[in-house]
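Good morning C.,

I know you're traveling, so I'll keep this short. The sequence:
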Amino acid sequence: MGIEFTEIGPDFIQAKMPVNEHTVQPFRILHGGASAALAETLGSVASLMCLDDLLPTPALAWN
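The tokens, ready to paste straight into the viewer:
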């Protein structure tokens, strides 16, 4: 999807994602799933940055 982290600070994270043939719907409008993927990625990385120690955790799977 081309998500690129552009800046990471002590209390923020910034990224960009291209709007191209990989991220648009057939009508050439940004696909909602692409927006969600960007938000989910930023949220996951930001929450990881809030941890003091990276402890092993069990993996969860959607079945």
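Safe travels,
E.
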